[in-house]
Write a structure and sequence with these properties.
about 15% strand; 5 helices; about 200 residues; Glutaredoxin; single chain; alpha/beta; six-stranded mixed sheet
């Protein structure tokens, strides 16, 4: 029985083709794994500490939400007392993270829907100059402040991660998302709060 080695056929081109195909496949896989995938909707992480949804929780600051920060766009002081009697939606975000910034557009839409009935407050990680430029460029319809000790004590965000907290008019956190936001549930919960 004759084998390929008995024939005067070179196997070298076959080996080279095989190595090239494997190398190209590996390069494609590495490139795809390093590319950021940003879905157009939030998908809660599975089996992780972040991405947890908490309902009817009080905040870690003995139930008090205490902060007074200047809005980076207009310089007005923003505090819970300014919005007494209406719910607040507080969103911690890092403008350098595309997924965090993409949510800002949806939060602006929520602010437009519930104008004068609820206030969205953006809490940005970063410095004033960078954030002010981003806020102006985005044309946001809600105030944005920089993270502060009071805000950190009131909400306990994880370093650099997004956090969204819906706070009732009585200043209790009634819905909280760490690392993602389920906008459908959030919208329903806001509507529930406003019916009370």
């Amino acid at each position: 029985m004759k084998t390929i080695f008995d024939k005067k056929v070179s196997v070298l081109p076959w080996i080279i083709s095989f190595v090239v195909i494997i190398g190209a496949s590996a390069a494609f896989y590495i490139n795809m794994s390093e590319t950021a995938y940003i879905p157009d909707h939030d998908i809660p992480p599975q089996n992780t500490v972040t991405g947890q949804e908490t309902i009817e929780s009080v905040n870690p600051n003995d139930g008090k939400i205490i902060f007074a920060q200047k809005d980076v766009k207009h310089g007005k002081t923003i505090s819970p007392e300014k919005f007494e009697g209406i719910p607040m939606l507080v969103y911690f975000w890092d403008p350098s993270v595309p997924k965090h910034s993409a949510r800002i557009v949806k939060l602006a839409a929520l602010q437009k829907t519930y104008m004068k009935k609820m206030i969205v407050i953006g809490v940005a990680y970063g410095n004033t100059n960078d954030i002010a430029g981003i806020v102006s460029e985005a044309g946001l319809n809600f105030p944005v402040v920089l993270q502060s000790a009071g805000l950190t004590a009131s909400f306990s965000p994880k370093d650099g991660e997004s956090l969204c907290a819906l706070v009732s008019a009585e200043r209790k956190i009634v819905l909280r998302y760490d690392g993602f936001i389920d906008f459908d549930k959030l919208d329903k919960k806001i509507a529930e709060l406003l019916q009370k």
